[in-house]
Amino acid sequence: MEGRLVDQQILPASTTMKEFEYFLKSKYEIGVFTEIHIAQLKHIKRMANEYGKKMIFHVDMVQGIKSDEYATEFICQEFQPYGLISTKSSVIQKAKQKGVFAIQRMFLIDTHALEKSYKLIEKNQPDYIEVLPGAMPWMIQEVKERLNVPVLAGGLIRTKEEVQKALEAGATAITTSKRELWV
Fold first, then answer.
1. Does 2 map to a domain?
2. Residue 54 lies in a domain
3. CATH code at position 108
């Protein structure tokens, strides 16, 4: 595993096979797949390999399998993802154990949820944090400064200006399914 997840500032996120096909033809090397059925993983991995792409899977959104340490171990062994995203501590810990980039997703809902997330992240020590919504630059800056963990920004980023603000606030990259932002 390399020391850094990405050198690209946009991580295209696919929720459908059609979006995934656009990603495969894009200039980007690393992509994210969310809302996927377990039966599609083999096909997606094969296609990604054919195009020289690296995939990050959102374990909590893989349908047909419970998102826990056993599912994580199975996905890591069978599909060799570049990284895994989850809100769950057991998934983050197992991904790290398997040598896969562990990205802990944190939702910026309210102060209580934020403090709870801070404690989980301090305990889990993920490689990266995905902050949602990512359209809150002041929170990206706070999270990065408080936890000293690289931040990915996702959710509700709709314009190139919002991408720029998130990056200026300290995000390493933006995860987005909005194809207009991939260009």
1. no
2. yes
3. 3.20.20.70
- pLDDT above 80 (res 90): yes
Q: With residue 123 as reference, give the H or E element that holds it.
A: helix 111-124
Number of domain units in the chain: 1
Rounded average pLDDT over 23-34: 96
User: By residue range, what is the domain housing residue 40?
Assistant: 10-181
Task: Give the integer Cα–Cα distance in Å for 34 and 102.
Answer: 15
* Segment (H or E) for 141: helix 137-147
pLDDT tens profile 44-74: 999 999 999 999 999 999 999 999 999 999 9
Q: Please compute Rg for the chain using Cα positions.
A: 15
Alpha-carbon distance of 56 to 126, in angstroms, equals 14
**What global pTM score does this model have?**
0.95
